[in-house]
Structure formats: structure tokens, C-alpha cells
Amino acid sequence: MSIETFYEVMRRQGISRRSFMKFCSLTAASLGLGPAFAPRIAHAMETKPRTPVIWLHGLECTCCSESFIRSAHPLAKDVVLSMLSLDYDDTLMAAAGFQAEAIIEDIKKKYKGNYILAVEGNPPLNEDGMFCIHGGRPFVEILRETAADAKAIISWGACASWGCVQAAKPNPTRATPVHKVITDKPIIKVPGCPPIAEVMTGVVTYMLTFDRIPELDRQGRPKMFYGQRIHDKCYRRPHFDGGQFVEHWDDEGARRGYCLYKMGCKGPTTYNACSTTRWNGGVSFPIQSGHGCIGCSEEGFWDKGGFYNRVTDIKAFGVESNADRLGGGVAAVAGAAVAAHAAVSALSRARSNNDKNPGGN
Amino acid sequence: MAVQVEVSGAAQTAAGRTVFVYEAPVRLWHWINALAISVLAVTGYLIASPLPSQPGEASDNFLMGYIRFAHFAAAYVFAIGFVARAYWALVGNHHARELFVPRLADREWWAGMRQELLWYAFIARQPRKYQGHNPLANLMMFLMVTLGSVFMIVTGFALYGEGGQAGHWANVLFTTWVLPLFGQSQDVHTWHHLGAWMMVVFVIVHVYAAIREDIMSRQTMIGAIINGERTFRS
């Protein structure tokens, strides 16, 4: 079997040359590359052999897949799946059983060191990984084997990137993010619960087009999508700066679309592209729908207490409190201690004065 | 540079003596710092727990903007003041160094610490007299002012750099490594908030201790940080 290029695959799928060029321009624009890059993307797609992608599912809820297949980027719905050369994805593929599992072995042999491993979900490590079984074996084993010959790994979503709800305290299955299990491969984290569809396709397109991983920040996330906070591009930001807040869910501020900061919006602490690219083809995003951001692309968002508190909980020493209650409490204790100490000081001073000058002063 | 060992009963701390302790830059820094911390504490609290919602058009209001501006401006004063104070520790007199280098290896210093604790527990009848800080005060200053300021400056500028975004000096110098160190932005916010309360506790104890020592230790405290001279009374 000769290896097809992306362009050939797309043409075979009935995509016109014109639509293909439009896709290239839009991809260049969505990657922030400028019009000069559209021909380069086209050229790469016409000449480069497809890079196969193996998409594994560990402990997860499949919301990443659900998001991904809804990529409303022009052509994405019909094309990106083919373009991706998604050779293995047990949720989406027609094959099942031994035939399906044989594909992994095939790709590992044929494309050794040249395929991309996309991981949705994470491996649980407790009980030798028995909490997640893939084809009769612990998922963590499949993950290690498949990662061994991969060129790079994409960690889809909060599960693969950070652990997510299955890793919430006390994490009984010891669900562990991918980068703590696989340490010898470049890993691109695409966090979010789920990540934005266009961000997912954007990351994959970038990697296939330029044959390298996108520039990452220190936490391993692509800078182009995770370089800014929701807050930095939020359309309600003027209300924040003006001090106009929703105080209750049913108040006038909520009706007028004021800032959701006081309702616990995590926009100021969350790095993601929601306020820029939005969701469902740019229709909306949580804040636009009147609900604060819950910070689903940030590490540990599931263990930070209420989604509706601005100053969040601190759970050290088993005490559930927040910085204001804790700090204010300590300050009150310090104040009371100072007052008590002052009183005792005054007494002891009065007594020593009496000792020095009995009967006077 | 020889560090003078000050023990109680030394000639310099005899009743009626006056020694020059705090040079002008130290005193100036103290009061600027006090003002900056006051502004930072109040505006910082209002950033985490904003005032009631403002009426009218968003374009007619900029309350959060002004509060944040005051916080950031005071933060620059606080940080630059701290750097200047650290510089003065190098070129100023030996009292100016106390905040930065507590004499942790000095047995006499630890003996003084014990004495101070006894004095504060109402067990010792008389405190020792020091030209500069007593060891207990020195240790508290080092932990809460010196290390506390560094902590607040580092976490504060890390949060400030988030707004500045990639390429902003604070983002490059602080945000890029402080956020992963603490976990994520929200954790840094929480720690910065706790640090602020630590500063409030420090101020409460500091003001009390200064007034108390001024009255009960027979030496000027409040006057010393105003005119620089410490007078010992009988």
C-alpha cells in the first residue's frame, strides 16, 4: 500500500480544489500565520505523506471526542477526520476486537517513530492498573507500549493533562496524568474539559503541516491557544474594570450581563481560548451564556472548592476554609492576644511601680 | 566589618545615653513602606472582594481599574523601596543590616532570644537593652518583613505579569516560573492572599510591641524611628 498524501485523501473524499485552498487559508489564519503561509500549508498537504494518529482512550468520559467531532471550523467536520489519518480510535472506528487491536501493532511497525499518539483520559496506576482495561490488559501497559515508538504525544483534555475528576482527592484509582507516566517523549497538553474543538484540530493541523510541535509554555500547553486568560479577552471585561458585578444570579446585573467575578468566575485565573474562539462554531462560551468560567483547563480545578467562590477553599490540615476566613481568623486571634498581653503588661507594670514606690505614684 | 555585640549593661545602653541607630534612609523607608503596605492591604482586599456593583454605563465607571491601579502603584513603591533598603543594608551602618542577616550562629544572640521570650511571658522582670533590635524582634523582622516582602513581591509580580501577558517584564521574570511552581494562577492568588493576612498580623504585633517596649523597656522606640535616636531611660 503506497502512502497517500493528505491532499489525495481529501480529493478522494470529494473535496474540491477550491475548498481545499479555502481550508488552507483558514487554517493559516487560525494559526495566526498570515496569508503567505496558506500556499505553504497547501504544499505540505499535497506532498507530505499522512502522519498516522493513534487515539487511545483511558479513564475518561469521551467529552474530548465529542468536542473534536464537532469542530465547526470550515471543512473540519468532513475533512479533518480524514486529514488526520486517524488510523486507530476505538470510539470512532468501524473495526472491533482483534482486528482493531491489530492496527496498533501494524502502525507501530510500519511507522516506527513517525506516528502521533493522542491520549484521551489517563491511566490509573493502583492495583497494577486494573481500574482501566483496554483489550483485556491494563490501559497503562498499552499506553507505555504505544508511546514507546511514537514521535510525539498529545494529551487531550484535563484528564490526560492534569488528572481531572477521576484524580480528585483521594484519587482511589491513582489516576495519573500522561506526562507522569511517559517521561521520554515530547508531550503537548491540550487541557480543557473538553478542549475547544477548533483548538484540538488547530494543534493537530499545526503538527502535521510544519512537522514539529507548536511552541509550548512551561506547563507544556501550546502558547497560541493557552497564552492568554479568559479574562484578558472577555467581552464583559469593561464591567469588571468599572466595578459592575453580578451579585446574585437573578439580579439586575445578571440581566445586564455584568462581570461574573463575584459569582466565582475563574476567567482571571484560566488560560484558554474560550473568550476568543468560543464554542460550537463561535456561537457562545460559558460567560456569554451567563455562567462564570469554572477553570476547566487549569490544573486541579476539580479540587479547588466551589465553582461559585471567588476566594477559594484551602483544604490543608483537613480544615476547609478560605484565605479570608483563615487570615482574618489569625488576625483576630493576634489582635485578641495583643489586647490580652497589653492588659497583663499594664497590670504587671502597675504592680512593679507599686513595689518600687509603695504607697504612692 | 565588625559587628558590635550589644549586651545589657553595656556602657552604651546606660540610662540617659542616646545613640544614633536609624539613619535617614532607613527611617524614610520605614514610613513609605508602612504607607505602601496600608494601601496594598486595603486595595488587595477590595480586589478579591470588590465593592458593591456600580450603577450606570460601563464606560462611565472605572472603579476596579482605579483600585487595581492603586494596588499596582503601591506595589511598585513597595518593591523598589525593598530593593533600595537592601542596598542600604550594604552601605548603611550595622543596624541597617539586622533585617537581612540575623545572627543565627551567635550563641549570645540566642541567649538574648530566650531572655526576650521570658520577658514577654512575664517571667523575666527586666528586659535587656539593645541599641538596635532585640533578637526576638530581629527574628520576626527577618521572617515577616524580609522574607515576607520577598514572598509578596514575587507572587505579586507573578500575578501582575498575568495581566501584562507574554513578553511583559513581570511575566518573563516571575509569571513563567511562579505559576507552575505553585500549581496554577488560582493557587498563587490564594497564597498571595494568605501572605497579605500575614502582613496584617505582623503590623498588629509590630505596632503593639513597639508601643509596649517604648513604655516598659525604658528606651525610645517610636521616637527612634522618627528621629533615628534611641534614648535609654532608667
Word description of this protein:
- With 361 residues, chain A is α/β, with parallel strands linked by helices.
- Chain A has helices spanning 6-12, 17-30, 37-47, 63-68, 76-84, 97-110, 139-148, 157-161, 197-210, 223-226, 237-241, 252-256, 274-277, 323-356; strands at residues 53-57, 86-89, 115-120, 133-134, 137-138, 150-156, 187-190, 313-314, 321-322.
- Chain A folds into 3 domains: 6-226, Rossmann fold; 231-310, Irregular (Cytochrome-c3 Hydrogenase, Chain A, domain 2), CATH 4.10.480.10; 321-356.
- Chain A is 39% helix and 9% strand.
- A 5-stranded parallel sheet of chain A has the order 2-1-3-6-7, sandwiched between helices. In chain A, strands 4-5 form a two-stranded antiparallel ribbon. A two-stranded antiparallel sheet of chain A has the order 8-9.
- In chain A, helix 1 crosses helix 5 and helix 2 (17-30) crosses helix 3.
- The longest helix of chain A is centred in the C-terminal third of the chain and has 34 residues, at 323-356.
- The mean pLDDT of chain A is 87.
- Chain B is an all-alpha fold.
- Chain B is built from 7 helices and 2 strands, in the order E-H-H-H-H-H-H-H-E.
- Chain B has helices spanning 24-48, 63-91, 107-120, 135-164, 169-182, 185-216, 222-227; strands spanning 18-20, 229-231.
- The longest helix of chain B has 32 residues, at 185-216.
- At the A-B interface, helix 11 and helix 14 of A face helix 2, helix 5 and helix 6 of B.
CATH topology of the largest domain in chain A: Rossmann fold
Mean pLDDT of chain A: 87
Q: Specify Rg of chain B, calculated over alpha carbons.
A: 21 Å
- % residues in beta strands of chain A: 5-15%
SS-derived structural category of chain A: alpha/beta
Give the C-alpha Rg of chain A.
27 Å
Structural class call of chain B reads mainly alpha
CATH architecture descriptor name of the largest domain in chain A: 3-Layer(aba) Sandwich
* Sheet having the most strands of chain A: 5 strands, parallel
